[in-house]
Amino acid sequence: MNYKPDTIFKADILIVDDTPDNLRFLSSLLLDEGYNVRKSTNGQMALTAVKTVPPDLILLDVNMPNMSGYEVCELLKKDSQTSSVPVIFLSALDDVMDKVKAFKVGGVDYITKPFKIEEVLARIQNQLTIRNLQNELQAQNTQLQQALNELKKTQAQLVQKEKMLGLGQLAAGMAHEINNSIGFVSSNLEPASEYIQDLLKLINLYQQEYPNPSIPIQEAIQEIDLDFLSLDIKKIMGSMQTGAERISTMILALRIFSRLNESDIKAVDIHEGLDSTLLLLQHRLRKERKCPEIKVIKQYGNLPLVTCYASQLNQVFFNLLNNAIDAIDSGLEKGITELSSPTIWINTELTAYKTVKIQIKDNGIGIDEKVRSRLFNPFFTTKPVGQGSGLGLVTSYEIVVEKHKGELRCNSLPGQGAEFTIEIPVQLIKNIGC
C-alpha cells in the first residue's frame, strides 16, 4: 500500500530517537515517501533543531537518556514559537497510562514499537493533513480579522466623515445666514448712534431755549431720568457695536473652519486654522463654565503656507483641543489640575525636514499606557456613555497619517497631562484616487 503524500506539500519531519537503527529505518522510509527528514539523537539536540527551523511534524521517542520524550514535548508546548508543531510519540511501552501521559503533555498520536510501516505512514499523513487544514483555517481567520478591522475602520471613517461634513455644512450655513442678519445690524449701528446723538443735542438745545418746561414735561424727564439715559445710551450703543464685531469674528472663524466652498487641497496659514478653532471653543475656555478659565499659551513659529486638506486639518485641531479641555475638566474634578493653573499650550515650528510640527499640550488628567496604546482604535473612548463616540482620534489619525502622510503621536503619563504632536509635510502631493 503506497502512502506517498502527492496532495501534501513536501513536509519537513524531525525524528528524535537515541537508537541509530530506528533513526535509519524511519528516515529511509520517510525519504522514500518524499518527505524532508532531519534527525536528532537526544532531547537537547531536538529542542535546538526545532527552535532553529520549526518542522511540520516531530516523531519523538519516549525513553531517551538525560531528557525523556515527555519532558521534550512539555518544553516545546510551553514555547509559543514551537507549541503548534504536532508531536507523535514513539515507544515500545504499550501501557494505557503511558499513552495517557503522552496525550497530557501535548502529543497528538502514539505509535508503539515494533513499527508497522503502513500504520506509521498513515498516522504521519493524517497528522500532516490536519496540520495543513489548521494552517489554512488560521490563514482564513487572519484574513477575516483583517477584513473585520478594515470594515470597522471604514465604518468609523464614514460615520465621522458624515458627522464632520454635516458640521461643516451647518457651520457654513450658519455663517451665511448670520452674516446677512448681522450685516443689517452692523451697517445700521453707526447711523443709529449718530441719530441718537443728534436727538440728544436737540433735547439739550430745547432745555437751553426753554429752561422752564411745563409740569408734564418735567415729570416725563424725571420719570425717564434723562441725565442717566443720555450717558448710558452711549455705552449701550458701544456694547452693541462690540457684540456685532464679535459675531462677525465668529462668522469668519466658522468660514475658516469649514472652508466648505474652497478647493479640497490648498495652501493655508496653519495659525489661522488654529485661531479659528480656538474661537469656536471659546465658550469652553472662559470662566462662564463651571470650572475656572483655561489659559491658552501660544508659541507660534515662523511657518510658510502649508498645502493640505485645510478643513480636515481644522477638524483635527478641533478634536485635539476639545479633548484637551475634557482632560483638564477631569483633572480639576479629581484635584490633579490646580484650580489656578488649567492651561493648554500650542507650539508650532518648521523642522529641518521641511515638515510642520504642531504640539497641543494640556495639564489635565493624563493617559496611562494601556489606554494610550488603544487611542487610535475605532470606537474606543474613555468618556462616559453619551459623551464620546470614539471616532475623533481615529479620524484625526486617518487625516494626519493617511491623508497627509504625516505623523500623529501622543506622549502622556497619568496625572501629568498629555501632549499630542502633529507633523505633516509643507507640500502635500495628492494621491491618485484620494
UniProtKB/TrEMBL annotation:
- Name positions with the PTM 4-aspartylphosphate: D61
InterPro entries the record matches:
CheY-like_superfamily, HATPase_C_sf, HATPase_dom, His_kinase_dom, Sig_transdc_His_kin-like_C, Sig_transdc_resp-reg_receiver
The protein's annotated catalytic reaction(s) are: ATP + protein L-histidine = ADP + protein N-phospho-L-histidine
Q: What GO MF terms are annotated? A: kinase activity
- Domain Histidine kinase, residue spans: 205-428
**Which superkingdom, per the lineage?**
Bacteria
Query: Which Pfam family, any one, appears in the UniProt record?
Result: HATPase_c
| E.C. no | 2.7.13.3
Group of enzyme by EC: transferase
Tell me which stretches of the chain form a coiled coil.
130-164
Matching entries from Gene3D superfamilies are given as: 1.10.287.130, 3.40.50.2300, Histidine kinase-like ATPase, C-terminal domain
Keywords annotated in UniProt: ATP-binding, Coiled coil, Kinase, Nucleotide-binding, Phosphoprotein, Transferase, Two-component regulatory system
Response regulatory domain mapped to chain residues: 12-128
* CDD domains on file: REC_PA4781-like
Name of the protein in question:
histidine kinase
What species does this protein belong to?
Funiculus sociatus GB2-A5
Lineage here is: Bacteria, Bacillati, Cyanobacteriota, Cyanophyceae, Coleofasciculales
